[in-house]
From TrEMBL:
This is Phage terminase small subunit. Residues 1-17 have a biased composition (Low complexity). It comes from Rhodococcus artemisiae. It comes from the Bacteria. Residues 1-27 are annotated as: Disordered.
Length: 157
């Protein structure tokens, strides 16, 4: 070993080796994680499935709400999986685990966004009805404009 090579400091025997990049050793359930590395694939799948079911969701104006809903659903799935693998909702002291409490809030948020997007039957029926009415109104407006335009042109002749 030459004097130019960096020397590794001597680590005490009790100390663990350094973590590798992208490790998951400190991760518990990932529900509060700001990193989407565990859910990004599922988010894309959910967005595509929703767009297949409801074609109006392809409109760019739905993008933010759709991604919000998909992220929430993916986190719910992740949390449910973690709870199932780690003994359920009740902690060792007999109380509800924080992850289970957070899942309750995530489910409420997902329900609200799902309704806004029309991903439940009642909300979808309402949105479909409103879209049909808007198309009808637009068509009638165009017809009225056409009639008025033609009438105005007829007056000048």
């Amino acid at each position: 070993m030459s004097d130019l090579e960096p020397q590794q400091p001597q680590r005490p025997a009790w100390q663990r080796p350094p973590f590798e990049p992208q490790h998951t050793k400190s991760l518990k359930h990932g529900l509060w994680s700001r990193s989407d590395r565990f859910i990004s694939v599922r988010v894309a799948e959910l967005v595509n499935e929703a767009r297949d079911v409801c074609d109006y969701l392809c409109d760019p104006s739905y993008e933010a709400a759709l991604v919000d809903w998909a992220q929430t659903e993916a986190r719910i799935e992740q949390g449910e999986r973690w709870l199932a693998e780690n003994g359920g909702d009740i902690g060792p002291n007999g109380g509800i685990k924080p992850a289970a409490n957070y899942l309750i809030r995530l489910r409420a948020h997902a329900t609200k966004v799902r309704e806004r997007l029309g991903l439940d039957p009642v909300a979808r029926a309402t949105i479909t009805r409103d879209l049909a009415q808007a198309r009808r109104d637009t068509h009638q407006t165009k017809d009225i404009i056409t009639v008025l335009t033609e009438a105005a042109e007829g007056d000048h002749l």
